[in-house]
Amino acid sequence: RMGCLCLRKFSSYPSVPQEIMNTLRMNTALSRSQIKYLYIRFHQFSGGGKDPPSHLHKYNFYSGLLQLNPLLPTILNSMFGNKVTITFVDFALFLSTFQAHSLKTSNELKNVMMDKKLRLIFNMYDNNKDGRITKYDLVVVVHKLFSNLLDHVQIMRIVNTIMKEMDHTDSNQIMFQDFCKAFAVFDMTEMMVTWIPEYHGRTTDDL
Question: What tens digit of pLDDT does each residue of 94-105 get?
Answer without folding.
Answer: 998 887 666 566
